[in-house]
Amino acid sequence: MTATTQAAPRLPFDRPNVLEIAPLYRVLRREAPLTRVTTPAGDPAWLVTAYAEARQIFGDRRFGRSHPVPRQASRVSHAAVLDGPSGDYETEEHDHTRMRRLLVPAFSAPRMRRLAGRIEELTGQCLDDMQAARDARPGAPVNLHELLAFPLPVLVICELLGVPYADRGHFRGLSERVGRIDGGADAQAAMAEFRAYTAGLAAAKRREPGPDVISDLVAAQAQDPTFTEDELARLCAGLLFAGHETTSTRIDLGVLLLLADPGRRDRLAADLDAEVQPTVEEILRISAPGGLGLLRYAHDDVEVGGVTIARGEAVIISANSANRDETVFAEPDAFDPHRRPNPHLAFGYGGHVCIGASLARTELRTVFPALLRRFPGLRLAVGVDDIEVRANRLTGGVDEVPVTW
Fold it and tell me: Residues 72-120: pLDDT tens digits?
């Protein structure tokens, strides 16, 4: 390791609490929006903290998830996802285009609108479970993460993909192991199990297809000989992992943001129909799940913000920091659902914008109104500073949101 790498700040940075990001990000946005850092794996990378540079890299096809020489690539962590390069350098753009073509219909806004009624039903079931937990132990806090924020996205993604909900314990355990920053060999073993599991799901759909995304992918594979079994299993595992982990975290953080200041909760509750959409967008902007950021590799020498990123170098884009850029968002650390415009980067930008954005928005726009209608007196049972961030997980987040009402 070079002296430059040794001197570079090491990710992840310390943060004051679950609702704030590390103060160092503000300094870097002002003084060095592209700066050298050391990853948790001990390798060098560029960290992008400012909005303009983040959006430029998101939209520039000269950055990708693959690497020209994978064995020489910087590693980000010892997890089994987003740990290093993925995909084929020669075919990445083609493969990405094909994947989007396959998945856009499954995650389209019209399909999400059709799914909205079912999401309302599933949310109601989770709220029933919260009430039952409180009735079973009157006066004791209820862990909203365990009874709503985690199970709801799992129920939804299982229904959408065609995954048995009874398997949730199995793939929850695999997801936790896969996403550990320090997971190492165990994370890789869990990923192998995860892919074997989704390969088994695909095989079952070949025998008995259903009205679900995995069945759609299996049908598409039958028409495309280049769409391999391994690629199908990897794609399904990625959808299952991302489809519940990220939305679960946003529900947790959204609840924490709303309840940390009862005035926020009350303003939303006073006019749920009008306020929910802008409130969700502000939650997406300001909530900071933790984790490291989104990984890209330069496929050519590229100048960004006056800095030349050399071909093959790793770039970590901190959307959490970019979404608090003072040059784009007035009073960026303030929770303001009425800010206009609100061009946050929570789902990325450009051709690689998150395929599940419509699904996540549908879930979030459903869950917060339902929660406040059911439990109008909802409040935190502990202080925000008492809630621990999962610093060892790629997706960050929390394990507990103790509430009462």
Answer: 999 999 999 889 999 999 999 988 998 898 888 888 878 888 899 999 9
Residue carrying structure tokens 């949101």: 401
Amino acid at site 230: D
As a whole number of angstroms, the distance between CA 387 and CA 368 comes to 20
Q: Nearest to residue 256, comparing CAs of 348, 386, 115, 152?
A: 386
Q: Which two tokens stand for residue 5?
A: 């790498």
Calculate helix-pair angle for 184-207, 213-222, nearest 10 degrees: 80
Single-letter residue type at 66: S
In angstroms, what CA-CA distances link 239 with 46, 87, 333?
27, 16, 31
Tokens of 68: 């020209």
pTM, two decimal places: 0.94
Q: In whole angstroms, what is the distance from residue 289 CA to residue 398 CA?
A: 8
Q: Is 286 exposed, middle or buried (0-12, 13-18, 19+ CB in 10 A)?
A: buried
